[in-house]
Amino acid sequence: MAVARAAQHNTTAIVVGSGPNGLAAAITLAHHGWQVEVREGAPVAGGGARSAELTIPGFVHDVCSAVYPFARLSPFFRAYPLEAHGLSLIYPPAALAHPFDDGTAALLLNSVSETAALLGADGHRYRSLLQPLVEQWRPLFDETLSLPRIPRHPLLLARFGVRALPSAATLANAVFSRPHTRALLLGMAAHSMIPLTWAGSAAIALMLAAAAHADGWPIPRGGAGSVSSAMSACLAASGGRIRTASPVESLDDLPPSGAVLLDLTPRQVVRIAGTRLTPSFARALTRYRYGPGAFKVDWALDGPVPWRASDCARAATVHVGGSAEEIIASEAAPWRGQHAERPFVLLCQPSVFDGTRAPSGKHTLWGYCHVPNGSTVDMTARIEAQIERFAPGFRERIIARRAAGPHELEAMNPNLVGGDIGGGANSLAQLLFRPTIRWNPHRTSAAGVYLCSSATPPGGGVHGMCGWNAARTALRDAARSR
User: Fold this and answer.
1) What are the strands, taking DSSP E only, across 159-309?
2) What is the pTM of this model?
3) Would you say residue 3 has pLDDT above 80?
4) Residue 220 contacts residue 20 (beta carbons within 8 Å)
């Protein structure tokens, strides 16, 4: 009977790509009774949310994403909690540590008041900036992560927009007087992968800080692959299935279905959709702008990172970049086609809190910096020099390393075009209107074909919302057609 109903209403769907957004789309449709099949070209599902022994046996590294601030906060993960499917999240005492040359470190703790207490003269300013957002985190994330619509909380959005729309550099200088506080904010803004003097770069910092105080920045026990395993189990519980090692070269090769959802960036969409797209829409997709690439290094260590500032051992995430001025210069360099001599490095030291990642007494370390899209420059020495700067003796603890530049990252995952791990440049215009200017960015010009990747709002990050929004669009369209 269920099969007959699916055929009658054509409630079958194929999702191309099994990254977190593709799996989120599949879970949403399957939960609503659709028959869903996910097609994945790689041998393992998960896209960027995977883990593997990248250096030597026994050391488990995260292939791409590693820390999950929205794992319990986004509307999708609140609707489909992954703990029910085996995911275990670990919450370090501090969400973030940011070391400085004077041997101290700024900390982002799991409450506004505790963080403010460490910021001296900037404490009351920090509390005034973040407390209103944290008190209303649920409507804030619902509004900013969902599809464009008439705001249900216009005053909250207006308050957020006043602070979020300027550049991160402008916000830091306007609000804070202490150099260390400014650097702490700019380090969070650097996750945007755009120059920190650009409008809108403050938004990423505010969202990440609010997430830290609402729930923390957890890491998954056992590695990033645990997130994808839990999402796969959630999908299977609703009857969906995943076919790995099953690449899709053309939409014409797929069997008929009620909807096709593409967890792909515009370049791949144009390649496989062919003549199904109108010429004008295809041209618009080819104009989509990708952002800087990443140069990533994974290390196997014979001990923990020997931080000069002991507070760094309280956080899984460490921002290695020094002063605000250094971070601004580092993040501007890739947009000029340059490679920073002192790059801002995002580090994750998961094995400090998760003993499953490495043999007893040993550790794993994950880190990357931003480089020009498609760069071929080896940044390993510069990255390690930055870590050594704040952790003397670090190099002596390296057992093995694996470096991957933009070309290696794209070869591993074709969605990482030129090493862009964010799904496209996060300029203010493209963050609001990605991949093209359309009221609903998930619909394409081809009937029944939808985009569900991070090339659609709300963009990069493991929150599942691109897939959730696309699937809900497909559900509404199907209901109208019936």
Assistant:
1) 219-220, 241-243, 259-262, 293-301
2) 0.94
3) no
4) no
Are the beta carbons of 263 and 21 closer than 8 angstroms? Answer: yes
Q: Which two tokens stand for residue 47?
A: 């896209």
* CA proximity to 41, closest of 17, 13, 24, 65: 17
Rounded Cα distance between 140 and 351, Å, is 32
What is the residue whose two structure tokens read 């999702």? Answer: 15
Q: In the predicted model, is pLDDT for residue 5 greater than 50? A: no
d(Cα 150, Cα 152) in Å, to the nearest integer?
A: 6
Tell me the C-alpha distance between 292 and 372, whole Å. 5
Where does the pLDDT of residue 7 fall: very low under 50, low under 70, confident under 90, or very high at 90 and above?
A: very low
Q: For residue 96, give the nearest of 222, 201, 227, 189 by alpha carbon.
A: 189
- Cross-strand partners of 97: 107, 318
**With contact defined as beta carbons under 8 Å apart, do 218 and 68 qualify?**
yes
User: For helices 137-145 and 154-164, what crossing angle results, to 10°?
Assistant: 80
Q: Tokens for 325?
A: 């001025």
Residue 43 scores a pLDDT above 50 = yes
| Among the listed residues 10, 12, 8, 436, the one whose alpha carbon sits nearest the alpha carbon of residue 261 | 12
Show Cβ contacts of residue 391 under 8 Å, excluding neighbours closer than 6 positions: 99, 305, 306, 307, 308, 312
Per-residue pLDDT tens digits for 200-218: 999 999 999 999 999 999 9
DSSP 79-145: HS-GGGGT--EE--SEEEEEE-TTS-EEEEESSHHHHHHTSGGGHHHHHHHHHHHHHTHHHHHHHHH
User: Which residue shows structure tokens 């709300």?
Assistant: 458
Nearest-angstrom CA–CA distance, 349 and 159? 35
* 27: region left, alpha or beta (phi > 0 left; psi from -120 to 50 alpha): alpha
- Measure the CA–CA gap between 25 and 272, rounded to whole angstroms: 19
Eight-state DSSP code of residue 440 = S
pLDDT of residue 437: 84
**90, 349 in Cβ contact below 8 A?**
no
Q: 111: which 2 tokens?
A: 């409450």
Helix (H) or strand (E) holding 400: strand 398-404
Which tokens is 454 given? 């991070």
